[in-house]
């Protein structure tokens, strides 16, 4: 087993693997994280990697390469951030683990639970840390909601709703290369866009017992995957849930998560708290409502995939750096990242086979 290469007392050196749109968010995030620095970028074209670095804060001193092997051999690279197309996460993640580099993977961890397992296993065998990017968990409103859930403030949780009703133009798919392909996107509105709110739903509600779903391609052409999906869930707790996912809803609405119980209701839009009500008020409730009343909502990518902030990435990368320094576990490790992929696979299976599916239990029909 190759020993992890982090050097004690030095900033964690990150190499970004893949230089598409989301890579820029990671580069800007790294510039905001104490104890982290961007040291390399890998692209299929060295000139493209160099051009990417020259536009990033702190990127001018980093090296550019078209060779993953070269990046992994450099001693200043302690960790990699993988921002390749979703269905191309497995190979660089496993190779990085084998080289003793810690691994951060942009969502989804991979496009099937089996491929996720191979990444998780490689990182465990080689003793490196693994994190999956789900920045929404680091948003202020979602953190407050999680605290309330864990404190039992909802009483018996009865119902949860997750909605990502976004808009993507036909040009988004036509010009996106891998976007909307089964091999590299792994799915459509669920796997690419709504997976953030699916992850939040599982974080709040715990495992799903069974799911029934429908999917469709309703507003676009020449796309292999769904642009509209609905799913009804029964959680192991007995609570019920609903997921709406779409890139077919013009002009695009804020991502929404709602948790309801017999003693409380909370609704979050993007990272804005739009409803916070409990049967039994406590001393913090008024302060929470006042604090979020001062916030103003953002589209969060509802119609423009570039219209997101890099701050959630910065918070999650700071958590990862902290885990490296303390030998702790990142908040969203590989197993956490796998959960949403397994559920989405079950949703697709239910829609395809027209039946109730138990995630992780029911096998696809031949």
Contiguous low-pLDDT stretches (5 residues minimum) are none
Helices and strands, in N-to-C order? Answer: EHEHEHEHEHEHEHHHEEEEEEHHH
Q: Could you tell me how far the N terminus lies from the C terminus, measured between alpha carbons in angstroms? A: 39 Å
| Bulk shape | globular
CATH first level of the largest domain: which class?
Answer: Alpha Beta
CATH architecture of the largest domain, by name, is 2-Layer Sandwich
Largest sheet: 7 strands, mixed
CATH superfamily of the largest domain: Dihydrodipicolinate Reductase, domain 2
And the CATH topology of the largest domain? Dihydrodipicolinate Reductase, domain 2
Based on secondary structure, the structural category is alpha/beta
Number of strands: 13
The helix count comes to 12
What is the CA-based Rg, rounded? 20 Å
Mean pLDDT equals 94
Give me the side-by-side strand order of the main sheet.
8-9-10-7-11-12-13
Give the domain tally: 2
| Portion of residues within helices | 25-40%
Strand content: 15-25%
């Amino acid at each position: 087993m190759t020993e992890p290469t982090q050097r004690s007392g030095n900033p964690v050196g990150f190499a970004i693997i893949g230089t598409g749109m989301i890579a820029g968010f990671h580069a800007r995030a790294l510039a905001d994280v104490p104890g982290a620095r961007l040291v390399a970028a890998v692209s299929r074209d060295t000139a493209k990697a160099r051009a990417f670095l020259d536009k990033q804060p702190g990127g001018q001193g980093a090296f550019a390469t078209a060779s993953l092997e070269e990046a992994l051999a450099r001693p200043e690279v302690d960790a990699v951030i993988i921002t390749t197309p979703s269905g191309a996460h497995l190979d660089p993640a496993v190779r990085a683990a084998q080289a003793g580099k810690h691994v951060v993977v942009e969502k989804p961890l991979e496009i099937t639970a089996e491929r996720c397992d191979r990444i998780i296993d490689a990182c465990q065998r080689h003793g490196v840390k693994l994190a999956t990017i789900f920045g929404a968990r680091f948003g202020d409103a979602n953190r407050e909601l999680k605290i309330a859930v864990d404190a039992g403030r909802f009483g018996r949780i009865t119902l949860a709703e997750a909605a990502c009703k976004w808009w993507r133009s036909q040009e988004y798919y036509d010009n996106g290369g891998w976007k909307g392909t089964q091999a590299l996107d792994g799915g459509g509105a669920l796997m690419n866009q709504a997976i953030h709110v699916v992850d939040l739903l599982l974080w709040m509600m715990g495992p799903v017992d069974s799911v029934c779903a429908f999917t469709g391609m309703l507003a676009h052409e020449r796309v292999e995957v769904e642009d509209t999906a609905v799913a009804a869930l029964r959680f192991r707790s007995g609570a019920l849930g609903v997921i709406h996912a779409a890139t077919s809803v013009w002009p695009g609405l804020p991502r929404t998560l709602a948790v309801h119980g017999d003693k409380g209701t909370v609704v979050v839009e993007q990272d804005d708290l739009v409803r916070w009500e409990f049967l039994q008020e406590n001393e913090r409730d008024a302060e929470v409502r006042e604090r979020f009343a001062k916030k103003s909502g953002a589209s969060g990518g509802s119609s423009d995939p570039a219209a997101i902030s890099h701050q959630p990435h910065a918070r999650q990368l700071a958590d990862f750096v902290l885990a490296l320094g303390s030998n702790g576990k990142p908040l969203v490790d590989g197993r956490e990242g796998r959960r949403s992929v397994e559920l989405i696979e079950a949703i697709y299976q239910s829609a395809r086979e027209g039946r109730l599916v138990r995630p992780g239990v029911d096998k696809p029909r031949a």
